[in-house]
Q: What sequence folds into this?
């Protein structure tokens, strides 16, 4: 691109990348098409204005923050041969930069202030809307663990750099951890204030969230905790155990074993089951109910049982499509789990865990023990639903049938 065209882009960016910007979308890749889209938004960090660059690479999303000068330089490079369009929405104007492979730049500008020169109300309302949008965007970034706040287990697991900055390709994991802790914070009033909070984490895997749970409750909130992380894989448990020792996390134990065979003496306050495969989630929920756990939290993983069973004459035309049958079966499985927990004496919610763009495994089941027990009427209604869909889910059998 000729210097004259670069200067044209530079001048427009100087007018655009400031506190009037709401959002810029950079799209239409010309050369390296690994990054399909970039979104730039202003954010306030510790009282200073920065610009967050969100890059979309396949199914992954990456975030970085830059000051205004650095952001302008990056966008200038993007628009000089890498991308064909940058569309900016500002408080006072809309600007579109178009660039082709030959290096020719075209700028289109729509000035809101000029159009509404005699309408001060419209100008004020646009500025107020921009302010509200920015405040809302910034509010969503106030995580329980902040980007830039060094946390020992996150650094050890490679989510953060030693200075607390989140590693670029680990931002989704960082968001998932924070979202999980928000759910934990919600149920804190239901847990006891004195003595150790006893927690079982079924299918803990690499234990990002197990370590997060310990860190939040023990280190940030100063609760006494007794946490057991259980998983089938010996090598995973050994790795988690070494890290626990390195961090000095007392009251956290990792054990190898099968959910079906695990037994725990004494009371259990919280049972967590994250991404336990297929009916393993049902065995975890059933044990939690049998132990009278005060709170149960589950994020189910793959769900095959209902998909194999479902036979519904009234829905044959819909269920003939494999992917539709699979998704209906997965949703039906979790709806059954929620209903079974309600019938077992729990107030139950089914919530979104993580945005669908980050993972399809985005449903969280959260159940809190009630004082009263349910009567048998609901179970009879559930049996009618069984007959309609032609299914008999594992959790229903484990909770309400003998000799299972």
A:
């Amino acid at each position: 691109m000729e210097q004259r065209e670069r200067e044209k882009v530079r001048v427009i960016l100087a007018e655009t990348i400031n506190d009037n910007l709401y959002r810029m979308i950079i799209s239409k890749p010309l050369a390296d098409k690994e990054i399909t889209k970039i979104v730039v938004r202003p954010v306030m960090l510790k009282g200073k204005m920065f610009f967050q660059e969100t890059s979309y690479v396949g199914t992954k999303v990456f975030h970085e923050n830059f000051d205004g000068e650095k952001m302008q330089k990056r966008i200038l490079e993007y628009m000089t041969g890498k991308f064909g369009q940058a569309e900016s929405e500002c408080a006072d104007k809309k600007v579109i930069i178009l660039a082709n492979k030959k290096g020719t730049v075209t700028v289109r500008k729509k000035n809101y202030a000029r159009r509404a020169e005699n309408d001060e109300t419209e100008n004020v309302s646009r500025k107020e809307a921009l302010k509200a949008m920015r405040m809302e965007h910034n509010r969503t970034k106030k995580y329980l663990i902040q980007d830039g706040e060094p946390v020992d287990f996150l650094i050890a697991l490679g989510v953060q750099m030693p200075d607390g900055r989140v590693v670029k390709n680990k931002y989704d994991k960082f968001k998932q951890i924070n979202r999980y802790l928000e759910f934990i914070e919600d149920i804190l009033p239901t847990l006891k204030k004195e003595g150790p909070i006893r927690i079982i984490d079924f299918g803990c895997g690499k234990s990002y969230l197990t370590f997060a749970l310990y860190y939040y409750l023990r280190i940030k909130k100063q609760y006494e905790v007794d946490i057991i992380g259980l998983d089938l894989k010996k090598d995973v448990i050994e790795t988690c155990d070494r890290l626990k020792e390195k961090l000095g996390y007392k009251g956290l134990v990792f054990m190898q074993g099968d959910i079906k065979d695990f037994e725990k003496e004494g009371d259990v306050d919280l049972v967590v089951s994250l991404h336990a495969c297929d009916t393993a989630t049902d065995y975890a929920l059933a044990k939690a109910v049998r132990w009278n756990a005060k709170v149960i939290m589950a994020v189910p993983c793959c769900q095959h049982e209902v998909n194999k069973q479902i036979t519904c004459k009234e829905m044959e035309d819909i269920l003939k499509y494999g992917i539709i049958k699979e998704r209906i079966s997965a949703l039906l499985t979790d709806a059954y789990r929620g209903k079974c927990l309600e019938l077992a004496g729990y107030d139950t919610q089914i919530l979104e865990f993580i945005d669908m763009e980050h993972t399809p495994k985005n449903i969280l089941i959260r159940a809190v023990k009630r004082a009263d027990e349910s009567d048998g009427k609901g179970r009879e209604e559930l049996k009618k639903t069984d007959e309609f869909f032609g299914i008999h889910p594992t959790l229903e059998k484990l909770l309400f049938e003998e000799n299972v």
The mean pLDDT is 86.
